[in-house]
Amino acid sequence: MDKILVHICCGVDSVWALRKLREDYPDAYIEGFFYDPNIHPEEEYELRWIETKRVCNSLGINCTKGEYDLKNWFNAVKGYENEPERGERCSICHDLRLEKTAQLAVEKGFNKFTTVLMMSPKKDFDVLKKIGEDIAEKYNLQFLAVDFRKNNGTQKMNQLAKEQQLYHQNYCGCIYGLFSQRKVNFQSGSFIPELVSFSKGRLAGSREELLFIKQIRLFAEELGLKVEEQQFRFLGWRVISSRLQINKQDIKHNIYLYSDSIKGVLNDRVKSIIGNKIILEKSDVEILITEDNIDMEPRFTTNPIFILNKKDIQGINIEKLTMELTTEFIPSSKSQNLYIGDIYNASEIIKFYSDTDFEGKNGYSLKEINDTILKNKENIKEGKTAVIVFGANFFGKIGENIFKHLSGQNSLLNPSDKVFC
């Protein structure tokens, strides 16, 4: 019996390619190998692995996760950083990944191997075929050069990816390809959002929030539970940099949601302190003082608002302030709600949130949610209990409000007769 090891780069490229292999080789044993040290950052690697695992699980195909061997990849492509897409750097990258696949194939007793990279229209089929065949000869294997794109393969891939609600990446994964794709000018201070974490937590609309949702989804699906995602768009926002000094002393602070940037450096004096609010003499910047966390609600103004904890300014006579703030508005951020079980007919609803505040607080851990799902597994299967993980809670309970709107204010969200976590 033929044994085929399939190199897999992501869930989307594999969702049709694995089905095609089964059609072409119905009597063969097929196994996957996820190995892509070219992907940056590691959170992106984990996200693509989870989606690959979901695809393989849905087909009953075993899949091995390769090491995130970033140092080896950097060494391999050193000197080819400025090569264009489909250039020499890509060939080296293909060679590295296919050689590792061939080595594993020999180790596990496979006689054939291939790669779902041949699914991608961004990759050169003939180059991949030549590399694969050369490596196959070296290891006494057969390389299967399958043109997965033929006969509407790309359309089938896109349709299946949509049906399975797979994460669809917007770059190949390579840091140098991303530099070129974004046309980054480092001298002008440009940055690439995909490579930057803007907080210690899981901000709404961030890759960290999406990875969290996908981890929960994989866990629930592997328990045999019905799972669905509902993606939504919202006006996103993030802090690029901020600084606050009182009497020339740096003060720990947070920034209120949707605060606009301050042009340059702003120096101002205190006009008055009313309750927990500091009013300044010249500017419309606001300073809030709190002992507890402030419930972030949506607002219609974008005045810059700094949030201070009372304990951090204890004993300080607040007179002069120096402030700097750079923020960014993102017109089309994406988050998602995750529904586990029969959310419309269950008699008990347990709700969680996927995002956290900037410090990584006021949120749930993966263990908390997964433990709850596991504890209620049988009731979820029977339709008695459902779990909802709402997205973008910290930005004004956006996911929950969207669900209420789309479900026609469905009574399942009435806390008077439901159990919430």
Automatic annotation (TrEMBL):
It is an enzyme of class 1 (oxidoreductase). InterPro entries: QueH, Rossmann-like_a/b/a_fold. Disulfide bonds join C172-C174. One of its GO terms (biological process) is tRNA queuosine(34) biosynthetic process. Gene3D superfamilies: HUPs (3.40.50.620). It catalyses: epoxyqueuosine(34) in tRNA + AH2 = queuosine(34) in tRNA + A + H2O. The keyword 4Fe-4S applies. It holds the Pfam family QueH. Keywords: 4Fe-4S, Disulfide bond, Iron, Iron-sulfur, Metal-binding, Oxidoreductase, Queuosine biosynthesis, Redox-active center, tRNA processing. The keyword tRNA processing applies. [4Fe-4S] cluster binds at C9, C10, C90, C93. It comes from the Bacteria. GO terms for molecular function: 4 iron, 4 sulfur cluster binding; epoxyqueuosine reductase activity; metal ion binding. Pathway: tRNA modification; tRNA-queuosine biosynthesis. Catalyzes the conversion of epoxyqueuosine (oQ) to queuosine (Q), which is a hypermodified base found in the wobble positions of tRNA(Asp), tRNA(Asn), tRNA(His) and tRNA(Tyr). PANTHER family: EPOXYQUEUOSINE REDUCTASE QUEH (PTHR36701). Belongs to the QueH family. This is Epoxyqueuosine reductase QueH. It comes from Venenivibrio stagnispumantis. The lineage of its organism: Bacteria, Pseudomonadati, Aquificota, Aquificia, Aquificales.
